[in-house]
Specification:
The protein contains no helices and 10 strands. By secondary structure, the protein is mostly beta strands.
Length: 119
């Protein structure tokens, strides 16, 4: 059974940093691109960043380019999101899923991890 467990969220001041982590199970992790998504209150879930199978290719939403870094550890079956220079508009619940431009399992999401950027 495919499962995602996100962690690392919290309350941070504008300009601060957080690192999110996602543990994945139930599928051949190293054979799939992985992505981070986020959903702010009252808004749709949006793609934030994607990483290829070996971690060589990465793609970011324009809103986070230069501030966020996605990485993965295939041996540990984890994907991480380092977030720097956080802004209030980064406040959202963050999720991971398989895939590059769209979620591989659109009906199977983890509980997500809440990121709140506020002074």
């Amino acid at each position: 059974q495919v499962q995602f467990v996100e962690s690392g969220g919290g309350l941070v001041q504008p300009g601060g940093s957080l690192t999110l982590s996602c543990a994945a199970s139930g599928f051949a992790f190293s054979t799939l691109s992985m992505s981070w998504y986020r959903q702010a209150p009252g808004k749709e879930r949006d793609l934030v960043a994607s990483i290829s199978t070996a971690g060589i290719n990465k793609n970011y939403a324009d809103s986070v380019k230069g501030r966020f870094t996605i990485s993965r550890d295939n041996a540990k079956r984890t994907v991480s999101l380092q977030m720097n220079a956080l802004k209030s508009e980064d406040t959202a619940v963050y999720y991971c899923n398989g895939g590059w431009t769209s979620p591989r399992w659109d009906h199977n999401w983890g509980q997500g991890t809440q990121v709140t950027v506020s002074s």
